[in-house]
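stage 2 :: seqdesign
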């Protein structure tokens, strides 16, 4: 598109409604399919010798259907209600500035997603992810007749023993995961959107239908599971599963070596199938539904839509 025909890129003001929208979308995502898929992939990543059926039996044994929602309250809800707002706010700002410097939709999507992912990790996802993983992987004392500590007792016990570092264990792996996750999801979703425009004869910048946006987001979310090794590393660093062979004071590098030596390349990709499903669902919620919901809010409030996030 030439400079004479290109529409000027205008920066929309930051709106509280967008932050609430991000939180609401993430709460919907995690309470519906998100947490069950999270529990399945975390269980498979932490217990890498289990088959898929074995992982499902292990989860069911922790509390039946409620076992699939372990860690939802309060940690997944705390994470969801904050990280969605952080993602939409930071990603929108970063994507706008990248486009203002001449980046393509694909490039700006990657910049926005990576920026939002890093902000998520250090603002809220680190400690919430750590506590979710602790909830999913710790042994149930009830099996021995001892009443298990509550989730808040577990949190305080870790804090007393290990401090802030203990409840943020694996945060650097989380940051790597989040920046590659959302860089891939936003970038690949935008790339797929452009491919759909080309195949359907739509012009650059022309809006896609709701179905086309969902397809683009699903493709972007599914393909973003290429970084599964860093997710397995993150789970292992945060896991409470007992293994006397596991090195102390794990770093990302030490954990990679330990998993590779113990389980090989396959071990680094354990849980990739539910992760693909989770990636698709998260991206549909946060990219496709996020775009559609923002447009709907802007129409209801009578504000002109000047630029996509």
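stage 2 :: out
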């Amino acid at each position: 598109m030439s400079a004479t025909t290109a529409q000027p890129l205008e920066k929309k003001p930051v709106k509280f409604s967008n932050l609430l929208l991000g939180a609401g979308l993430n709460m919907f995502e995690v309470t519906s399919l998100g947490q069950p898929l999270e529990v399945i992939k975390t269980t498979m990543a932490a217990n890498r010798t289990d088959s898929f059926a074995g992982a499902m039996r292990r989860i069911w044994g922790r509390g039946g259907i409620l076992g699939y929602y372990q860690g939802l309250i309060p940690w997944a809800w705390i994470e969801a209600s904050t990280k969605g707002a952080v993602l939409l706010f930071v990603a929108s700002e970063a994507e706008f500035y990248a486009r203002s410097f001449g980046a393509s939709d694909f490039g700006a999507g990657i910049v926005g997603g990576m920026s939002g992912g890093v902000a998520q990790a250090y603002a809220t996802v680190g400690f919430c992810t750590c506590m979710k993983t602790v909830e999913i992987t710790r042994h149930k004392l009830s099996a021995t007749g001892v009443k298990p500590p509550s989730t808040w007792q577990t949190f305080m016990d870790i804090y007393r023993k290990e401090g802030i570092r203990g409840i943020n264990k694996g945060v650097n792996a989380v940051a790597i995961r989040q920046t590659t996750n959302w860089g891939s999801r936003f970038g690949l979703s935008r790339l797929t959107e452009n491919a759909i425009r080309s195949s359907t004869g739509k012009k650059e910048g022309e809006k896609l239908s709701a179905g086309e946006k969902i397809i683009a987001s699903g493709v972007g979310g599914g393909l973003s599971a290429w970084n599964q090794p860093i997710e397995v590393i993150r789970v292992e660093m945060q896991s409470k599963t007992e293994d006397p062979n596991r090195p102390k004071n794990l770093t990302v590098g030490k954990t990679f070596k330990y998993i590779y030596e113990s389980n090989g390349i396959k071990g680094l990709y354990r849980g990739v199938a539910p992760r693909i499903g989770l990636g698709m669902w998260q991206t549909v919620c946060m990219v496709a539904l996020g775009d559609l919901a923002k447009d709907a809010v802007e129409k209801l409030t009578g504000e002109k839509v000047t630029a996509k996030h």
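stage 3 :: structure notes
- Residues 1-5, 304-309 have pLDDT under 50 and may be disordered.
- The chain has one domain: 16-182+211-301.
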